Automatic annotation (TrEMBL):
Phylogenetic lineage: Bacteria, Bacillati, Actinomycetota, Actinomycetes, Kitasatosporales
GO molecular function: DNA binding; DNA-binding transcription factor activity
Gene3D superfamilies: 1.10.1660.10
A Pfam short name: MerR_1
Bias-annotated ranges (Gly residues): 242-260
Signal peptide bounds: none
Domain HTH merR-type residue range list: 1-66
InterPro entries in alphabetical order: DNA-bd_dom_put_sf (IPR009061), MerR-type_HTH_dom (IPR000551), MerR_fam (IPR047057)
PANTHER family to which the protein is assigned, alphabetical: HTH MERR-TYPE DOMAIN-CONTAINING PROTEIN (PTHR30204:SF93), REDOX-CYCLING DRUG-SENSING TRANSCRIPTIONAL ACTIVATOR SOXR (PTHR30204)
Official protein name in the record: MerR family transcriptional regulator
């Protein structure tokens, strides 16, 4: 074994470990002596070359098993390389603590809890040979976090959100693999693939690789539009009907007495309510719609009057409420389909 170690450049301990893992065949025997030949030396060189290319020992064991079964390594190596190469075109960067401070604000990088969370999540990878510096596998992800932090999101809230997001994205990835495995790769032979079959599978992976990202991008865009619009409508509705204690136009207003009202009345005693205006014009009609006074902040009513005029204020408020009711009805119907 010492001679094999000397010729291969591997240590005796490493050779024993490879034998225990099934990567290196056991030596032949001559009496009580172990015999190693050129096949052992070749295998050690193969393992070393694959390790340099980034393969794990588990992957190397599978590749060498394919080689031993006579299936060739070129196709299998191409398949493994296609699957295990980065699924992003991003180039990792190095950042120091001072540079992190520049991104997130002075003192941010000195937050031990936030840095520890980022390291645990793999957003930052410490460089042992350069204390105080980190490898950033995804500069885009870090840039998004920095922008959100500048907008007011606390650092630990960002890492908590990333944990939740990562779990959901990993679920999506697992479902995509199950889907393609069932309908595409399930047709591949269950036993080890031949060199030609492995090359064909690598081509499939190459074509399918961008489809996963494109599908998620399209669905995320759709969902963001739906929920952003819904959130905005809810925010505007609360601002219009739920504000309490806010005044305007020279007098203090009162909050909405009952949420969801459509026709409003200002609490300011100096202003005529929108419902009174609507009722005044409706009294002359035989089939007048039934109106109900609901309190509305005086400032809101003043803004509506400034926008459409006092005569159209009631109709404008009623129309806005009807549109909101219609939109929420459509949302419920869409969610139930």
């Amino acid at each position: 074994m010492e001679d094999l170690a000397r010729h291969s450049g591997a240590t005796v301990r490493t050779i024993r470990a490879y034998q225990d893992r099934g990567l290196l065949p056991r030596p032949g025997r001559r009496g009580r002596a172990n015999l190693y030949d050129d096949s052992h030396l070749t295998r050690l060189r193969q393992i070393s070359a694959l390790l340099e290319r980034g393969y794990t020992l588990a992957s190397i064991k599978e590749l060498l098993a394919a080689w031993d079964e006579g299936r060739g390594l070129s196709g299998v190596l191409g398949l493994v390389s296609e699957v295990e190469r980065p699924w992003s075109e991003e180039v990792p960067e190095r950042l120091s603590l001072d540079e992190l401070d520049g991104l997130f604000g002075k003192g941010s990088a000195r937050s031990e809890d936030a840095v520890a969370e980022a390291v645990e999540l793999g957003v930052l990878v410490p460089l042992p040979e350069r204390p105080g510096e980190f490898l950033v596998p995804s500069p885009q992800e870090l840039a998004v976090a920095a922008e959100l932090h500048r907008a007011g999101v606390p650092l630990l809230a960002l890492t908590g959100h990333l944990r939740e997001l990562r779990a959901q994205v990993e679920h999506i990835a697992a479902r995509f693999m199950d889907f393609t495995g069932q309908h595409i790769f399930g047709r591949c032979p269950q036993s080890g693939p031949t060199d030609e079959e492995a090359s064909e599978a690598a081509g499939l992976v190459r074509r399918l690789r961008p489809l996963a990202k494109q599908t998620v991008d399209a669905e995320l865009a759709r969902a963001m539009r739906t929920f952003a619009s819904r959130s905005l409508r809810e925010h505007l509705r609360q601002g219009a009907y739920g504000a309490e204690g806010e005044g305007g136009g020279g007098g203090g207003g009162q909050g909405v007495g009952q949420p969801g009202a459509g026709i409003a009345e200002a609490a300011d005693s100096t202003e005529t309510s929108a419902s009174d205006e609507a009722a005044g014009s409706a009294e002359a009609a035989d089939n007048a719609p039934v109106t109900e006074p609901v309190l509305l902040p005086a400032g809101t009513l003043a803004s509506v009057r400034a926008l459409v005029g006092a005569e159209q204020a009631a109709a404008f408020i009623a129309s806005a409420a009807e549109r909101e009711v219609h939109a929420r009805t459509m949302d419920r119907l869409a969610a139930g389909s």
